[in-house]
Amino acid sequence: MNKTLILLAGYPGTGKTYLANGIMERFPEFCLLSPDEIKEKNWDLYGFNSLKEKERLIQQSWQEYYETLEDCFKRQIGVISDYPFSDKQRATLHRLSKIYSYQVITVRLIADLDVLFQRQQQRDLDETRHLGHIVKCYQKNQVLRHDEADNLLTYDEFKKRCTTRGYESFALGILFELDVTDFNDANYEKLYGALEKIMNG
Q1: What's the pLDDT band for 123 if we cut at 50, 70, 90?
Q2: Crossing angle for the helix pair 155-164 and 113-125, nearest 10 degrees?
Q3: Count of domains in the chain?
Q4: pTM, whole model, 2 decimals?
Q5: Where are the alpha helices (DSSP H) in 3-86?
Q6: Out of 40, 103, 111, 167, which could bridge 181 as a Cys pair, Cβ 3.0 to 4.6 Å?
Q7: Euclidean distance between CA atoms 83 and 123, whole angstroms
Q8: Using only C-alpha atoms, what is the Rg of the chain?
């Protein structure tokens, strides 16, 4: 199987984690590398008392992400990574994939923004959602109802992020686009087959 980096990109709330798990079932030799998991780990380790401190930890997490990705490349491990990637990450991902001769496949997930905002709300209010995503100050083991968080996204802010950050246009390497406005209409099996053909080609 060719050395491959699969980027699950596109809007928030499009089921990238679900898709990542589905691909992992088909291709268990891949490792899953999630920027959000690294952020959450660092938020628990260090906490933050302001949005400025939070942003500093986010940048630290990205540095750790790239270092981990490069280590996987050095060991020639296939990688799946899920995030609403944008131009902020494009140059570094392109550079690393070229250095280590990795082919890149982007699966860009799109959907109606009104539907996605409803999903985003449900996810943010879910008690399993890490509080660090929705508060301005955070310490591990903090007790707070999710609907009382002080940094929940408004519809206007959500729409602004989705329309100004380039989530809908991000692509590296071979591109597949999948509309997941209705998950029942998304042909995941067709996608898995296409991925397998490329990786074995």
Answers
A1: very high
A2: 120
A3: 1
A4: 0.95
A5: 16-26, 35-46, 51-74
A6: 111
A7: 15
A8: 17
Q: How far apart are the first and last CA of the chain?
A: 8
Nearest alpha-carbon partner for 101 in 76, 81, 79, 82: 76
Residue 199 confidence class, pLDDT cut points 50, 70, 90: confident
Domain residues for the domain of 31 are 4-199
Contact 6, 103 (CB under 8 A): no
**For the chain, how many helices (H) and strands (E)?**
7, 5
Q: Which structure tokens are listed for 191?
A: 């996608």
- How far does CA 5 lie from the centroid of its chain? 13
Candidates 53, 72, 78; CA nearest to 195 is 78
- Helix, strand, or coil here: 136? coil
